[in-house]
Amino acid sequence: MSSFSVLNDVDEQTSKTILGSDGAARWQDFRSGSKIKATTSVAPAIPLKKLDRALGTKSILDERATEAKIRKDAGDRELHAGYTEFQRKNDHEEIAAQKKRKLIVDRVRPDDMPYFL
């Protein structure tokens, strides 16, 4: 069991669920549906730590591959998995349904209903 998975287990037991925002949900929808795949960044790679060099890591890609392997072996989520649960603040269909229910409760005739005299 890796230290990452131990911390993850403690976190699952003690913390509340972290809900992604509307923007995070839209970004994940875009990222998963987009044909353009993320390539290398223009930012310089961070330097390796002394311990990483001592463990035989040659580059940041090696370090990421090692972390991905550790996560996979421990059964944890993969890197960059993102949020899994979302709290949608602006659910337009739900807002429209609430408005329609309020009109019914207030006995206001909707515009799309015919009038009979």
Topology:
Blueprint: H1 3-14, H2 22-33, H3 50-54, H4 60-74, H5 92-105
List keywords for this structure.
elongated, 117 residues, 5 helices, 0% strand, 50% helix, mainly alpha
Element string (H = helix, E = strand): HHHHH
* Structural class estimated from helices and strands: mainly alpha
Shape designation: elongated
Q: Quote the average pLDDT.
A: 76
Query: What's the helical proportion of residues?
Result: 40-55%
Low-confidence stretches: none
Count of β-strands: 0
| Largest sheet entry | none
Using only C-alpha atoms, the radius of gyration works out to 24 Å
Helix count, DSSP H or I runs of 4 or more residues: 5
User: Beta-strand level of the residues, as a percent range?
Assistant: under 5%
Short account of what is shown:
This protein has 117 residues and is an all-alpha fold.
